[in-house]
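User: I'm new to structure prediction. If I give you an amino acid sequence, what do you actually give back? Let's try with this one:
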Amino acid sequence: MEKIRKKKSMKSMKRQESITYLLFMAPAVIAFALVEIVPFFQGLYYSFTDWTGLPSNPIHWVGIQNYIDAFTDSRFQYSFLITLIFALANFVLVNVVSFSLAMLVSSKLKGKNIYRAGFFVPNLIGGLVLGYIWQFIFNNVVVSLPFYNGLSLLANPNTALVGLIIVCNWQYAGYIMMIYFTALQGVPKELGESAELDGCNGWQKLWKVTIPNIMSTLTVTLFLTLSNSFKQYDVVLSLTNGGPSRMWQGAAINGTELVSLNIVKTASTDNLMALGQAKAVIFFVFLVVITLIQTSITRRKEIES
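Assistant: Good question. You get back a string of structure tokens that encode the predicted 3D arrangement of the chain. For your 305 residues, that looks like this:
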């Protein structure tokens, strides 16, 4: 009888714990559902209609017409192309720069704590403010340098994209550096010392010892930089606002209008809410596929290492 009572009391305690956990989780789950889940499915529904955002206008079902219009929109096609170029360049540079900085502040460099804090500070500045600061730097400071002859980087769509990559790297590299730095502290020093005794040089020790031991961190950092590169919006808005213009398929379009900015302008500026929502769904599916491919590849590397 005593054993039965103990079992019943254990089950009762577990039930009470489960109810407590659920009660504590409920506010966060409800907030997430109201802010993320419900709007997502509402947007998915609206993407198949002629929704205008005005409650006075009736909503009609149009099927996949918005998706057809999105795929045939030359402005959206260019935005996707320029976003792919920007994301690839930003993805590679942020990880190379941040990993190099992490290696630097993990060394025996004097004042490395000051450098670490200094590298991280740009990430604390809001994207909109950061864009306006660098707009002033490119348009007023850089062009006034004695060795610089030419227009502002932001005056040409090709160089404006370069300027955008510089700013995003300056902002985000410090944040990713801190993640790499934390991972590097967890690599056993004995492994590096053993590799040196075996005759490994710096590069061999990096590729054979350091990187295999931080593969799980690489999965996280590559995911963060990849998704952030594709979703870049606030810096683009304040730095270039999609400009300057260029010719594409016989029409003038914004030269640095990334997909996120194109979606917002389609919905708000052009007042094509349903089309903008269809573009957002396409972009969401694309991001899910890209990030799943990236995480599956890096996780496979984790197992191999």
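You can read the tokens as a compact description of the fold. Here is one thing that stands out. Residues 2-46 form the longest helix (45 residues).
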